[in-house]
Design goal:
The chain has helices at about 5-20, 30-50, 55-85, 95-120. By secondary structure, it is mainly α.
Length: about 120
């Protein structure tokens, strides 16, 4: 997958996250989890953009690991929202979880590849 396609997927993921969060109930749990989800779910796109300007391969790896960390946090948050039914029933939570999981897989591979390339230097 090329950089523009991956960036676009991350942006689309962030948009889905915002849409989910905006439809959550105005309860104590809904407010807390929607805020958490917005932070962790929009962060990957922003950090990926920052990683593209990494000052070194180590800096790039560090920023990609942050993307991965935030994707994993989003995944857990989405699972909690799904299990507690804090989402709009019309929201395709499972499809968002599937995309989240695919993105995690992509970035796990990206970190592995970048670390191998760093060792070759």
């Amino acid at each position: 997958m090329n950089k523009p396609d991956l960036e676009e997927r991350l942006i689309n993921f962030a948009v889905l996250i915002i849409e989910i969060a905006n439809k959550m109930p105005n309860t104590r749990a809904g407010i807390h989890l929607s805020g958490q989800l917005i932070r962790s779910g929009t962060s990957p796109a922003l950090n990926y953009g920052e990683a593209q300007s990494g000052e070194s391969r180590k800096d790039f790896i560090h920023k990609i690991k942050i993307v991965l960390k935030e994707l994993r946090e989003s995944y857990i948050c989405l699972k909690i929202i799904q299990r507690t039914k804090l989402h709009d029933p019309k929201t395709p939570i499972q499809a968002v979880l599937d995309e989240n999981n695919e993105l995690i897989s992509i970035f796990v591979k990206s970190v592995e590849t970048a670390q191998k390339n760093l060792q070759k230097e």
